[in-house]
Design a protein that fits this description.
By secondary structure, the chain is of the alpha/beta class. Helices cover 41% and strands 14% of the residues. It is built from eleven helices and eight strands. Strand 6, helix 9 and strand 7 form a beta-alpha-beta unit. It binds 3-methyl-2-oxobutanoic acid (KIV). The site of 3-methyl-2-oxobutanoic acid (KIV) has 11 residues, from strand 6.
C-alpha cells in the first residue's frame, strides 16, 4: 500500500472520486484504519473529549497532540496523517511555526488549524516552510465560547458569504485542504465547487470531496452523538469491518444520507 499524498487527493477531486478520513489517536486503531483502506487520518483535538473526557477541545496541549500523532504514525504507513494544532497554539506566527514543526516531527504530513482570513499570513508562512495546511471552517469547536455552542453555521446569507470568502482566502494563502463542519449542504456544495483543493465535510452533506467522522462516533462508543453521525459498528462483524463499511459508504455516496444533513 503506497502512502497517500496530497497531489493524489487533489487528483481524486479532479476525477470526481471521493475519499474517506477518520480521526484516530493511537497505533492499534491506526493499523485497522490502514487495513480498511481509509485514505487519511485526522489526529483531531477531539481527543480532548473522546479520550480525556473534557467537555470541549480547549484543554488539549501541543504535547498531547505530538504524543498521539507519534502513536498513530508508528501504527500505519499508507494513510496521510493530518494533525490538529490545538487551541492557543497558533495565535502568533512564530508560535504557529514552532508548534506545527513539532507536529510534523512527530509524524504528521499536514497540520490543521481552525479559522478564516485572519490565518492567511500563518498559512503562507507554514507553506513556505514546507508544512502543508488544512483549514477548518463552519463550526470551529475551539471557538465554542464565541459561537455560543456547537451549532450549525452559515444558515443566513451573510454568514454563508463570510464562510465562502474565508474558504477562498485560505486556498489563496496556500491551504492544501479544507474541513467544513456543520454547514448547510447547499453551502458546502458551493464551496466544494469553488475550490481546487479537496474539501472534507463533517455534517456538511454529501457533495464535499471527502467525509470525516470521529472514530468513537462512527463505532457507536460516544453516548450522545450529533445528527450527522452514523454508527457503522451496528451490523458489523468487527471494528475493521465497520471502518470498511464507512469507507465504502463514503465512496459510493450513500453516506451521508438525507437524515445526516443540514439545510
Ligand atoms: O478534532 C476533530 O476531530 C475534528 C473533526 C471533528 C473534524 O476537527
Amino acid at each position: 500500500m503506497s502512502k497517500t499524498s496530497i497531489p493524489s487527493l487533489i487528483q481524486k477531486k479532479q476525477q470526481g472520486e471521493k475519499f474517506a478520513v477518520v480521526t484516530c489517536y493511537d497505533a492499534s486503531f491506526a493499523q485497522l484504519v490502514e487495513n480498511a483502506g481509509i485514505e487519511a487520518i485526522l489526529v483531531g483535538d477531539s481527543l480532548g473529549m473522546v479520550l480525556q473526557g473534557h467537555d470541549s477541545t480547549l484543554p488539549v496541549s501541543v504535547d498531547d497532540m505530538a504524543y498521539h500523532t507519534a502513536s498513530v504514525a508508528r501504527g500505519c504507513r499508507a494513510p496521510l496523517i493530518i494533525s490538529d494544532l490545538p487551541f492557543g497554539s497558533y495565535h502568533s506566527q512564530q508560535q504557529c511555526l514552532d508548534n506545527a514543526s513539532t507536529l510534523m516531527r512527530a509524524g504528521a504530513q499536514l497540520v490543521k488549524l481552525e479559522g478564516g482570513a485572519w490565518l492567511t499570513d500563518s498559512i503562507e508562512l507554514l507553506s513556505r516552510a514546507g508544512i502543508p495546511v488544512c483549514g477548518h471552517l463552519g463550526l470551529t469547536p475551539q471557538s465554542v465560547n464565541v459561537l455560543g455552542g456547537y451549532r450549525v453555521q452559515g444558515r443566513n446569507d451573510d454568514q454563508a458569504k463570510h464562510i465562502l470568502d474565508d474558504a477562498l482566502a485560505l486556498e489563496a494563502a496556500g491551504a492544501a485542504m479544507l474541513v467544513l463542519e456543520c454547514v448547510p449542504q447547499t453551502l458546502a456544495a458551493e464551496i466544494t465547487q469553488a475550490l481546487r483543493i479537496p474539501v472534507i465535510g463533517i455534517g456538511a452533506g454529501p457533495q464535499t470531496d471527502a467525509q470525516v467522522l470521529v472514530l468513537h462516533d462512527l463505532l457507536g462508543i460516544t453516548a450522545k452523538t450529533a445528527r450527522f453521525v452514523r454508527n457503522f459498528a451496528d451490523g458489523s462483524s468487527s471494528i475493521e469491518d465497520a471502518l470498511c463499511r464507512y469507507r465504502n459508504a463514503v465512496l459510493d455516496g450513500s453516506f451521508p444520507a438525507a437524515e445526516h444533513c443540514f439545510d
